[in-house]
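Hi R.,

Here's the chain you asked about this morning:
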Amino acid sequence: MSAFKIHQFLNIFTNYISRYELTPFQLKVLLHIGLQNKLNGSQPNLTITKISKDLNMAFSTVQQCIKKLAKGYSYKSARTNESITQEGCELVKHEKPNGGRKGVISISIKGKRFLEDIGNLLDDNGKKADNNPIGG
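And here is the predicted structure, written out as tokens:
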């Protein structure tokens, strides 16, 4: 595959994931949640602690990723004391029984579609690359 084709694919891929403004860490967490849901069915029993251990990432990093990947969150600005809401992209569900701090994390329908679309994008570009000789 030529450098031009690699560059072209990366542009398509980057434009696709930028719809949700995902960072590489957020994409990594989302892919892990999607894979665990696929391997373990609808009851993956994933928590922030388990994901952070599985991916060898700091708990707080995974926690922030989940907030962005789920419904979002609100906080008070330290400077202005105003309430600020950070919208999430709702690609995962973070269900907290009884309003507690701990909760189970799973992929949402929207998240499944997003990952399927990424898979199709990779498949389509892989087929194009397979049909062309290296450097062609």
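One quick note: DSSP finds five helices and four strands in the chain.

Cheers,
M.
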